[in-house]
Amino acid sequence: MTLRCPLPGCGAENAADADACVRCAAPLRHFGRLSAYPAQLFNAGLAAARAGDLTEARELFAAVVHWCPMDVEARNALALASYQLDEHETARTHWQAVLNHAPGDPFATEGLARLPAPGLGRGPASPRTRS
């Protein structure tokens, strides 16, 4: 496993446990741990959703999206949790953001299609979840 240097203009591949970048000497020891944290948050969100704690799941997915705003999978999960909590406008915002970054994303497209028109009540049944 390797760790790519995060500094613009470098991007050198380093050993996952490197203290410093082999090319530019940027400190990397803590960056490697931080870069794994969003995955831990996402997995905790999935566990919370499976346990039925959608509020906790939504908060964990929101943290991932805050750290990684281009993460389509996390934003789809945040939108779905919001949808299931009847927070339709929040779900709409996040699914639209997914489509802005990944036009044609089937999960976001299906989610938006299931949402009621703005200002109306609950729409059709919840969108399917991914396995």
What does the secondary structure layout of this molecule look like, with pairings?
Elements lengths: L1 E3 L8 E3 L13 H22 L3 H14 L4 H13 L3 H14 L4 H9 L17
Antiparallel strand pairs: 1-2
Short descriptors:
131 residues; two-stranded antiparallel ribbon; 2 strands; 55% helix; 5% strand; elongated
Task: Give an overview of the whole structure.
The protein has helices at 29-50, 54-67, 72-84, 88-101, 106-114, and strands at residues 2-4, 13-15. The chain is mostly helical and 131 residues long. Strands 1-2 form a two-stranded antiparallel sheet. A hairpin with an 8-residue loop joins strand 1 and strand 2 (13-15). The radius of gyration is 18 Å and the shape is elongated.
Mean pLDDT: 90
Poorly predicted runs: 122-131
N- to C-terminal distance: 26 Å
Count the helices. How many?
5
Strand order within the widest beta sheet: 1-2
The main sheet comes to:
2 strands, antiparallel
Q: How much helix, percentage-wise, in residues?
A: 40-55%
Cα Rg: 18 Å
Number of strands: 2
Could you say which structural class the secondary elements and strand pairing correspond to? mainly alpha
Query: What is the N-to-C succession of helices and strands?
Result: EEHHHHH
